[in-house]
Write a structure and sequence with these properties.
This protein is α+β, with helices and mostly antiparallel strands and 560 residues long. It contains 22 helices and 21 strands.
Length: 560
Amino acid sequence: MPFASKSSGAPVKMIVSPASRRLRILGGIALLAVFATYLHARSRWNQTPFEYAHDYYESVTNYFGGPVFNNTLYTEGNAHMVNQYYNSSDPCANFPDTDGVLLVMKTGATEAFDRIPTHLLTTLKCLPDFLIFSDMEQQVGPYHIYDALAEFEESAKAHNSDFDLYRDQKECPVSQKSCVDAKRDGQKAWNLDKYKFLPMMEQTWRLRPGRDWYIFAEGDTYLFWANIMHWLKKESRLSPREKLYLGSRSFIGGTPFAHGGSGYILSGTLLKHLIEYHPGMVKQYNVKGAHECCGDLMLAQALEEYENVKIRQIWPMINGEKPSTLPYGPGHWCEPILSMHHMNAEEISSVWQFEQTRKTDRTLLIKDLYEGLIKPKMQVSRQNWDNLSDDVCYLNPDPEAQQRADAHLRERKKNEDEMNEVEKEAWKSPEHCAKVCESQDVPDEDEWDSSPIVARKDDEPGTANDTELAEDTSPSDAAAREAWKKSMNEKKRNRSCFQHRWHEEVCCTAKSFKLGAPKAAPDDSNPNAKWVSGWHLKGINDWIEAMGECKKPAWKSPDP
């Protein structure tokens, strides 16, 4: 293309490249975007803090894909175990496959609305199927509660005062809780409960036959489904084709039975045989119930009488305690947990939340419950508190004081001729009581290192101690230190005193560590009436350190 000459006097034409034009267009668009952002931001400068918080929540929720809240269990003490935030968008994402397993939950009409809803909001929402039985037919939202006693013979109920509550419940014109609270019929609910067990077995098989395993639990039982399914399918090496009755073994009158509140497991084969092969069994035990204390005991009696099957023990995996009462320590540490009992609605929700917010999906051990839920709450002492220490007790030697003490504590009393000087004075005060556990302390490794070795001057005569000093600084010193360390760790592992409790001039110590529960403050000014509980945190931490990490879960094989 020819260029214009200056001498021609014609105007010079500027040639603009396509790239330059694009830059100008993009620059204009950017200026418009900045201006629009300014106008948008200016209108929001006066937003309230709540609106900003709401926007933050929305942004976090969108990022994580569902409702996200602060994890109320999160503290500095368990930050290594649980996440700081609780994403509740998909609570069943990591729930195990429960194919072939049916949960059967038992409750009572007087407590159903206190206990069942929390289960429905937590573990039960992830189960594809389950049954709930009570002593009255009820409805909780879309969930039906069956009356386990609906087919109970009228002749067996007619003159049995245990069924007064059953009849009264049907006549109550308001909520069951209101009627029971007015009459204070709590004991009647307990008396009626024992009749549900065997009729519940019969109805369960009729409603849901053919399952591999049937897990029975109470309304205050919490089940750890990931552990249960892993144990049943992989670790137990049990077959549902066998006749199996598994649980936490208790005894009444020499008869072993699976404690109902802890939960228990029947194989499908055993339930089928019990119900289909012995049609008169349930009626027989319906009559027998008037003379027995407990339904779980009668179930064990029926299984032994008709099927020659006894309970096989899988405690402590199936457990009758809860996080605040579990005896952490030897025998309750590396073991996986399958169930807990005496759980109120708040405790059920908290343990579910703990499972949901854990940073790992490995097998949940008893030690994890301590480290995640209990350890952050441990302190040196608490007033008006009972930490359930009662393994070994030290009583005021005065005969009258000994007589005043609870019989259970007198049975745990250590003989005076077996006591050391610290133990002989333990009853005098909470401070004296605390010294019992302190007396079991062993020196730490740095205390060995701090022992001074004084060198002898050249012109001083030798002594017998020089040989010992030479040994301390010889090449064998490292081996001696290692042997000492091993010995101290062994003593830490064998510690038998972790905590104490003092009340009414009785000091009791425990061979495990528990949180416990509050006690009412005494009304009078008697200083001996107070409850004081203490934890020897150094001893607890020494034991945990000496135990080290659990190399693998200590799964329990059923006792024969």
